[in-house]
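Researcher: Can you fold this with flavin-adenine dinucleotide in place?
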Amino acid sequence: MSEHTQVYDYVVIGGGTAGSVIASRLTENPDVTVAVVEGGPSDVGRDDVLTLRRWMGLLGGELDYDYPTTEQPRGNSHIRHSRARVLGGCSSHNTLIAFKPLPSDWAEWEAAGAEGWGAALMEAYYARLLNNVVPVDEKDRNAIARDFVDAAQKALGVPRIEGFNRAPFTEGAGFFDLAYHPEDNKRSSASVAYLHPVMDERPNLALLLETWAYKLELDGTRATGVHVRRKDGEEILVRARREVVLCAGAVDSPRLLLHSGIGPRADLEALGIPVVHDLPGVGENLLDHPESVIVWETEGPIPENSAMDSDAGLFVRRDPGQPGPDLMFHFYQIPFTDNPERLGYERPPYGVSMTPNIPKPRSRGRLYLTSADPAVKPALDFRYFTDEDDYDARTLVDGIRIAREIARTEPLAGWLRREVAPGPHVTGDEELSEYARRVAHTVYHPAGTCRMGDAADELAVVDPELRVRGLDGLRIADASVFPTMTAVNPMIGVLMVGERAVDLIGGGA
Ligand SMILES: Cc1cc2nc3c(=O)[nH]c(=O)nc-3n(C[C@H](O)[C@H](O)[C@H](O)COP(=O)(O)OP(=O)(O)OC[C@H]3O[C@@H](n4cnc5c(N)ncnc54)[C@H](O)[C@@H]3O)c2cc1C
């Protein structure tokens, strides 16, 4: 089929978390035309997507790109990285836990060269968000999760936090804020909040759904559009009069750059991809929040009410010298045994789990291509637990010990019949580390693969205005631009990147 051309002012590649924000804001100006190239279908009318509590049913299904990791000698090689293939992106299949990044996160970004991204300025972008961010509703607060919060507070002496986004914190236990509508458990995802209200009313907004972007079009050093393939095989060159904005996420943004010849020269040459622009940082600095899991059998069934089965959590700061928390826990009202089962552990009929994770992991991974064929998934080598001081693994060992302290404390203790995994006999540092790493999972937070940095930083992919270094007409706005990992779950940070990108582009009404 021959390729034809469509022209818009802006082409947004990826109608996901950040992309939905940008497309919505840019088209507030009726004189500006925007095309969104989105690989997945619409989420409108899809209860399987829009009902928050059904999130687990989406993992690994037809709306999941489902990226494997490379072998992880120090970790778990079986982790599958879910990435949503649907309008709203990962905000359409995640758990919508909503944390404004902490002031210490923004300070770290600034120190890494993201000039102008300090906490005071970023506050305005949080205020702009259209998502319905509310604390877990009273009716969704399960009795065992309430007792987890009480026990954590008592066992560790940390404060109870009601509204994690009200003020910066370093420690505390409580129910999360979620981007949802408690009355019907519907998502307040990026697409629901930003696109649904306007998508049928704005002739200047074109949603090209089930359309895959496989190569950027460049005229010299200027990005002028993108080559896409529609579901029926039709190929289109979607041109941008003003800018191309890449919002395909931490996996697919670097993937598209690499297939377009933008990346580390030697890697591209080795695969026979013509080098358009040597940019060594593309795919480097692959970050994540790794987690482990402790599972208990409960004395019997747990009440059913919940927003999405992991409604409460805990932050701890073990090292008072740190500006923010250095250990985080999600509490699951279900026995989360996917990884332990592979090691021979059983799934109890009724149970709960705590998943300690590393807010500021030190291991750094890398994303790279293994083929010049754009259909082949890239390799994701997170290099889990490879940091020099073994900080990451030690953090999870501390996490298991702290989780046990909480489990021994009333009012939680009375619910629990026995520890299923790793089991009370596993107590030594070495054994705990081995267990923690082999059952390690991801909190699904890949980031950093096109990181922002200053002009002197050769491994930076975008400058503080989100422009790709050395090229014109091309910005990136999604989780890939994170210079470092936020201590908290990243989605709100991604939405704020989207809002800020609109200002930097100079668009919007
Ligand atoms: C299961 C799960 C649970 C999570 N829970 C939470 C949570 O509770 N709280 C939190 O803060 N964070 C959570 N996260 C992380 C958070 O959702 C992500 O960090 C964030 O949504 C990423 O946004 P993004 O804009 O970078 O990418 P995405 O939202 O993934 O958007 C990328 C979009 O681009 C499209 N796309 C990609 N490549 C192409 C291409 N070549 N052509 C066309 N379209 C393309 C995709 O279809 C997708 O819609 C979770 C993630 C997952 C997977």
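Model: Folded with flavin-adenine dinucleotide in place. The chain is about 25% helix and 20% strand.
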